[in-house]
Specification:
Elements (H helix, E strand, L loop, with lengths): L1 H13 L14 H8 L3 H6 L5 H12 L4 H16 L6 H10 L17
Helix pairs in contact: 2-4
Keywords: Signal
Organism: Corchorus olitorius
Protein name: Plant lipid transfer protein/Par allergen
């Protein structure tokens, strides 16, 4: 658990409240990190997706009220994921379906969150 907490701290420190395309998104990277933190263990180790992870995925999707919110969430996830050693992007992209929902983008190191 210590490694996961360290990763959360690193991700939170890297995620400032920034603007995309000049429009301020309402969602923050700190919120996205909090909601999706329970998914890190599945993304790194596999196994079973926890109910807390699914709740976080659904909460983060519901929190996206505008296109800018969705873009910001995408950028937060992309930037945060890049800081997690041994993250398996295939597993990460399987999480929404395993939680009974969908995500409008695929998480990858080169996803263009502006589209």
């Amino acid at each position: 658990m210590g490694l996961m907490m360290m990763m959360l701290v690193m991700v939170s420190m890297m995620m400032g409240d920034y603007h995309l395309h000049g429009v301020k998104a309402e969602i923050t990277c700190e919120e996205v990190t909090y909601w999706l933190f329970p998914c890190i263990s599945y993304g790194v180790l596999g196994g079973t997706v926890s109910p807390a992870c699914c709740d976080g995925v659904k909460t983060s999707l519901a929190a996206c009220k505008t296109v800018e919110d969705l873009r910001k969430k995408c950028q937060c996830v992309k930037d945060g994921a890049a800081l997690i050693p041994a993250l398996n992007y295939t597993r990460v992209n399987d999480i929404p379906a395993l939680c009974g929902t969908t995500c409008p983008y695929q998480v990858s190191p080169d996803v263009d969150c502006s589209k």
